[in-house]
Design a protein that fits this description.
By secondary structure, the protein is an alpha/beta fold. Helix content is 42%, strand content 19%. Helix 1 crosses helix 5 and helix 2 runs parallel beside helix 3.
Length: 135
């Protein structure tokens, strides 16, 4: 069951990115939206372990990570929970990668460097169930 509190706008989020700087930037955007970061992973294996343990409302997932890349991680997350809300975040903003991620089950896609206002809009849409692909 989702932990989203529609009245207060709160939600839980797992951030997976091998860059600590990127994780902190994303965490600031999530906090502005009223969400809380319940876990941070620096590779796909950690992300899967945390996803399984924490059942977050949202996963913000980098594509390029060590041990297990974002697309492999996304595939495994969707296998565990077909309704998982995952937003891919990567500097690899080519159309082929975007559509591959969406085809695997990502709700949307953001490119680095993040525009905080745009990222907040996309994340908010996905949390409310309005995400349906890249904007």
């Amino acid at each position: 069951m989702s932990q989203v509190d529609e009245q207060r706008g709160t939600f839980t989020c797992l951030v997976a990115d091998d860059s600590q700087f990127a994780r902190k930037n994303v965490a600031a955007i999530v906090a502005k939206l009223g969400g809380s970061i319940v876990g941070e992973a620096k590779n796909g294996i950690e992300a899967l372990d945390l996803f399984t343990a924490l059942s977050p409302d949202l996963v913000l997932l980098d594509i390029t990570m060590p041990q297990l890349d974002g697309l492999g991680t996304l595939r495994a997350i969707i296998e565990r929970n077909p309704n998982a809300k995952v937003v891919i975040i990567s500097s690899l903003g080519n159309k082929e990668m975007v559509w591959k991620a969406i085809g695997l089950g990502a709700k949307s896609f953001l490119t680095k460097p993040l525009n905080a206002d745009y990222a907040a809009l996309v994340i908010g849409d996905v949390i409310r169930g309005e995400g349906g692909g890249p904007r």
